[in-house]
Amino acid sequence: MPDLAIITGASAGIGAMFARKLAARGCDLLLIARREDRLRSLATEMSGAHHIHAEWMIADLADERDLERAAARVESAANLGLMINNAGFGIHGIFFESDVEGQAAMHRLHVMATMRLTHAALKNMAARGSGGLINVASVAGFMPAPGSVSYNATKAWMINFTEGIAMELAARGSGVHVEALCPGFTLSEFHDVVGMDRSGVPKPLWLSADFVVEEALKGLDRNDVVVIPGWRYKLIVAGIKLLPRGLARRLTARQTRAFRRRKSQ
Ligand SMILES: NC(=O)c1ccc[n+]([C@@H]2O[C@H](COP(=O)([O-])OP(=O)(O)OC[C@H]3O[C@@H](n4cnc5c(N)ncnc54)[C@H](OP(=O)(O)O)[C@@H]3O)[C@@H](O)[C@H]2O)c1
């Protein structure tokens, strides 16, 4: 029986690309998101093209009941080989001037759903001593930025959380591997959802979802805990880590203003 990959946020962008690449590798799929039409057509296409079994589950993972339903499915899934916590979204705007419900929903999705589904997946996989889990964080998690405070903070939490889990699994001598995937700007529907004009970001900084997912899967094969696709972003993150925090904060604020000026020109 082939391994099962469960992917949240599989109806678009990076999640849909994970589904395509894993189906091509022969994995069965369970695709989770809110838009049923998207999930159904991707599952049908993948099962036809690769002769795998593909199912979907409609769930708003920022909703507690839906999250519990998804967690129960993850925990009891037979032959779970890979869990990918990818569902996410951005919000643009000053934190204290924005609608608090959007901020709270983001914390529920990025933090609570990741925590709950990681717990469910590890209960399932740790008992067998094999499998993999990818939490899709972001390079944004390495530094706060004005205008996306909750996004960067929740992604920082995801990186820290995943590193901690990796340490616990290593201490137990487990064969389960976990990864925090930290992409930079990636072409997907993400920026349409935020309402962001892509022209504000210099072209060389854009990554394709194809490249990001390839790097994620290579990283998992190598047992890398933190994966940053692309040399430019590796360099940026190395710079952020080397600089004194106060200086890194000032430079990030200046860069964010420069992106916005570029966009408005
Ligand atoms: N694109 C980038 O530049 C970038 C960079 C770094 C990290 N990331 C991260 O990569 C991940 C995937 O983003 P993407 O770029 O592929 O964006 P995307 O194309 O907008 O896809 C986001 C996915 O998340 C799902 N989703 C959103 N809210 C959900 C909810 N409440 N419950 C269940 N599913 C939900 C969406 O499905 P439904 O709408 O159908 O529910 C969709 O499938 C996110 O975690 C994002 O933070 C993206």
- Helix and strand composition category: alpha/beta
The ordered string of helix (H) and strand (E) elements is EHEHEHEHEHEHHEHH
The residue-averaged pLDDT reads 95
Instruction: Give the assembly state of these chains.
Output: single chain
Please characterize this protein's 3D structure.
Helix 1 runs parallel beside helix 2, helix 1 (13-24) packs across helix 7 and helix 3 runs parallel beside helix 4. The protein has 9 helices and 7 strands, in the order βαβαβαβαβαβααβαα. 54% of the residues lie in helices and 14% in strands. The chain has a 7-stranded parallel β-sheet, sandwiched between helices. The model has no long low-confidence stretch (mean pLDDT 95). With 265 residues, the protein is α/β, with parallel strands linked by helices. The chain has helices at 13-24, 36-50, 64-76, 100-128, 149-171, 190-194, 209-222, 231-242, 245-264; strands at residues 4-8, 28-33, 54-58, 80-85, 131-136, 176-181, 226-227. It is globular and about 50 Å long. The chain has one domain (4-264): Rossmann fold, CATH 3.40.50.720.
